[in-house]
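ARCHIVE RECORD
Type: protein–small molecule complex
Small molecule: flavin mononucleotide
Source of inputs: curated submission
Record status: active
Notes field left blank by submitter.
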Amino acid sequence: MKDASAQAEGAAPVSPQTFRDAMSHVAGAVHIVATARDGAPAGFTATAVAAVSDQPPMMLVCANADSETTATILETGNFSINTLAFEDAALAEIFAGRTGVRGAARFEAERWGVLATGAPALERALVTFDCRVVSAGVAATHRLIVGEVVAVREGLRRRALVYRERAFQGT
Ligand SMILES: Cc1cc2nc3c(=O)[nH]c(=O)nc-3n(C[C@H](O)[C@H](O)[C@H](O)COP(=O)(O)O)c2cc1C
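STRUCTURE (tokenized, with ligand):
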């Protein structure tokens, strides 16, 4: 391939709005990414989560650098990924900051435990991945946080929560 940049090819650049519109067609599983520092939990709703490898097991979270939770994960060196069921859409709203609740207060609505690292593990999650940070790169506005999965807990089999067409749906 020669020069793959859109402008070099004469194509119109992709605006942030065009990109967001395009991404609205992509269904994403919805998770709560969480950590805790000195007993104070922090967490946010995330769809930019992916499995990286199984040997060793690793997961990637693309986390906004401005997020309070991102800063706390980078300090503690651990985080959990809690995959949500369809019935937990209200929890996704809370952890996305859409109800105005911030910080540790987001955790009051549900029961949380811990697995290996001490990061909060949502008891009613479909599955929880407990991770230790192994790298944290930078890409534009986000940190690419890769964690080694040191513990997992599988929950009850229920409909999964997905985000598509700017709405929460079940699958
Ligand atoms: C459906 C959905 C998916 C989201 N996915 C991500 C994500 O993958 N990464 C991210 O940094 N923020 C994501 N957000 C935004 C955060 O949840 C939101 O900014 C949150 O309030 C950050 O909280 P904090 O600043 O307390 O950490 C998403 C929001 C929604 C509604």
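CURATOR ANNOTATION: Residues 16-170 form a domain with the Pnp Oxidase; Chain A fold (CATH 2.30.110.10).
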